[in-house]
């Protein structure tokens, strides 16, 4: 059940949320690419970032501040390692300074290669407004071989390391602009697998309790069958028990005689007994009694006479009298 709860409250919302964010980003890109380039003061008149303006291409005139440049290492562009170059840009006619991502360069055997400098003097550039990336609390700006490095594209982090007040957003420099390096292309406008992943987690959340319930039902059913199969048969006494099962049972011959008597048909109560039936019943009773008497007198082979038989009885039986 804990897995089902995690599917509904954590895993599925996580993937569905990513799908929502991706769809929103794609909508913003479609809208932004359908609009013409506008001056930065028309789209972003202040230093604050407006999420609705992300991906809009704006133009700005000013100059690069190369001495406050920073590098973002450990990036991946087109499935290859890359270093992105961030250079502050002072806007002409104001005190605004915007951080510009000029593009990427490829590292040389893990080292920072020579980076082409930006043009000196006043230039006009065009770039797309981008939101600042998040910053990890345990990672900050550093210095490597005399070059300022940062873990992510965050104007606040670069501004704090260089002592420069920067706008909250940054500009992703467009292709073939002054100072541009390797182009960082727009994301592909596909939704990705997040929706299907979210639906899969929902399905798992539904199937998990159903599967547990089925296995519990099958286990209970199997145990009931096993209990029924191992249960003893009915313990009711039988009408015709054997001599070994009956305490104080008679000898086998006596039991046979008694059975013969029991099997003797008796007239139905209330019905008159005919003379023939009465004679037949008497003969059967006499025959059964005679058989029991003979059985009691005759011993088994290999055994002597019973203790109950007297000497006079033996002589009378042998010689008559």
TrEMBL record:
CDD domains: SURF1. One of its GO terms (cellular component) is plasma membrane. PROSITE patterns: SURF1. Residues 228-321 are annotated as: Disordered. Pfam families: SURF1 (PF02104). The keyword Kinase does not apply. The keyword Transmembrane applies. Belongs to the SURF1 family. This is SURF1-like protein. It comes from Gordonia paraffinivorans. The lineage of its organism: Bacteria, Bacillati, Actinomycetota, Actinomycetes, Mycobacteriales.
């Amino acid at each position: 059940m804990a897995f089902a709860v995690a599917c509904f409250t954590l895993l599925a919302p996580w993937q569905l949320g990513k799908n929502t964010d991706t769809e929103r980003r794609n909508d913003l890109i479609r809208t932004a690419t359908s609009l013409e380039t506008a001056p930065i003061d028309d789209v972003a008149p202040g230093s604050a970032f407006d999420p609705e303006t992300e991906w809009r291409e704006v133009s700005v005139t000013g100059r690069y501040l190369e001495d406050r440049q920073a590098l973002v290492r450990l990036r991946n562009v087109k499935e290859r390692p890359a270093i992105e170059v961030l250079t502050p840009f002072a806007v002409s006619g104001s005190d605004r300074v915007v951080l510009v991502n000029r593009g990427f360069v490829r590292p040389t055997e893990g080292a920072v290669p020579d980076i082409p400098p930006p043009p000196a003097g006043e230039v006009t550039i065009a770039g797309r407004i981008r939101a600042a990336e998040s910053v990890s609390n345990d990672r900050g700006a550093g210095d490597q071989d005399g070059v300022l490095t940062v873990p992510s594209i965050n104007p606040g982090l670069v501004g704090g390391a260089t002592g420069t007040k920067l706008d909250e957003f940054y500009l992703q420099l467009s292709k073939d602009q002054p100072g541009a390096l390797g182009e960082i292309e727009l994301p592909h406008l596909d939704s990705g697998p997040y929706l299907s992943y979210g639906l899969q987690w929902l399905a798992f959340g539904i199937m998990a309790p159903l599967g547990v319930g089925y296995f519990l039902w099958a286990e209970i059913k199997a145990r009931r069958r096993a209990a029924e199969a191992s249960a003893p048969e009915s313990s009711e006494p039988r009408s015709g028990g054997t001599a070994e099962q009956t305490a104080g049972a008679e000898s086998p011959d006596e039991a046979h005689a008694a059975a013969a008597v029991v099997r003797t048909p008796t007239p139905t109560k209330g019905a008159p007994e005919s003379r023939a039936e009465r004679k037949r019943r008497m003969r059967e009773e006499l025959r059964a009694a005679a058989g029991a008497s003979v059985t009691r007198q005759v011993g088994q082979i290999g055994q002597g006479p019973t203790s109950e038989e007297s000497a006079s009885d033996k002589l009378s039986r042998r010689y008559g009298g």
